[in-house]
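Anyone? Bumping this.
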Amino acid sequence: MKKYITTPIYYTNGAPHIGHAYTTILADVFKKFEQMKGNDVFFSTGTDEHGQKNQHSCEASGLSADEFLTRQSQLFRDLFDRMGIDYDYFVRTTSEEHKKVVRTVLQDLFDRGLIIKKSYEGLYCEGCEQFKKKCDLTEEGLCPDHLKAPKVISEENYFFRLEPYRQWLKEFIALNPDWITPTNYAKEVLGMLEEPLDDLCIFRPKDRVWLGIELPFDKDFVTYIWFDALINYISTLKFGENVEFNDYWKSSYHLLAKDILKPHCIYWPIMLKAIGIEPVSRCIVHGYWIGEGGVKMSKSLGNVVDPNEVIDIMGVEPLRFYLINNMSLSNDSPISIALLRQGYKLLANNLGNLQMRVLKMVDKNLEGVIPAGISLTAEDEKLLTDISSDFKSVYVKDSSLETAVDLASKIMTACNQVNAYFAANEPWVLAKNPENMDRFKQVIYTTLDALRLIATALYPLMPNSSKSILASLDVKNEKVEAQFEAKGLGEGKITVPNPLFPFLPE
Ligand code: ME8
């Protein structure tokens, strides 16, 4: 089955931070998870390169727009490549392919009378690139995300009417309770739909914003950044030209944080309805990583955790694991280098040590040979079937994609179970007495097979660690597939590798 997974496209006004890293890693975990179940996934990410914020940073850099945007976009690409992100398409909104689709959509809506011209006065937050209502602001009149007062702007402009679609959207969300998950965000969107929707101002006069896509029907204006950016989700699939468009769109997933709920869950389905396309299949929303100061991490506030710095300290895969293990989608989560180090230690103690201890024992006492083909006790069998069925419950073919969010905690639970089993059975004591050799082999085989199950389930989160653990167990999978039968480990010889999670200097 074909699936389409997207991340937001990120603004190029600063370097990528841990929030951008997270959503992109989440998408990559989803892709690998779906691939293990045999699905064909197209995953797109990219950069949102127009609008006032990018323009201001570009002007401050002293570079030409092309130089600045290419340099900034490359920072995201470099990070994603470093994090092992297997995206299929990296969209830049300044590309001709994207601009062509935006112009075609605009011209079509204009020709059908869905875009109107009128004068307007409103409060505009540059950080959000959105007009705000008074009720959206703090008591002090500031944007709650950017802690800045919006500017009063008055101008003649073009508008796209949202209100005629409000009732339809309310009904659509009520009829499709999983369309926005977790459900707390669906409630938030339904709350926004209780009030009439203002017309959406979809262009910016060029004397205020020059960095944007010029309107096909008025050269004095450029396209409002959200109208331009949201269209990336269909321009990436080559809307209008690609015969497979519908195959992917039918199972499409937008990942995003709650900051951009309104554009994705109100503007975008309405835009699509006007264009004549079904809404995306699912919007999967997550909370914020909260940086120092207890507020959302953001480039504008300067309280960011730099993913490149984290990778320099501990490598990519512990970062991937930490982020998936510590974000619950419906809430915000704190993050700092100190917390990441704690997460690393947990991984080293629960998984890394388990692998090294059991492999060294096989090496020392069994000349590295896996004791396959022996009978096990009921206790051993139970451990393996418990772990196997827990992973199978996540990896069943038609399980929903978000079940992958629980993978990290399921892996930690399995590691805890195996560690407790290993400690209780004391194989290091059994090894000392030749009479206990049969029991020793049972405990070792059970632990090795459990480790194989864990390493297989680990693949979407930590692909290289997964492959390296499987290789140390002499499992010769070219491609990691969802193989979760208990007692699947066959004959072979283990190798004792270097530790996956070595001690980190402070
Ligand atoms: O909004 N915690 O781009 P953006 C968790 N260009 N995730 C975070 C985060 C945090 N503290 N900060 C950022 C834009 N993110 C638009 C999107 S899409 C058509 C256009 C992640 O650079 C999260 O995915 O501000 C959030 O939705 C996104 O980055 C916002 O990135």
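Late reply, but here is one note on the structure posted above: The chain has two domains: 2-305, 337-472.
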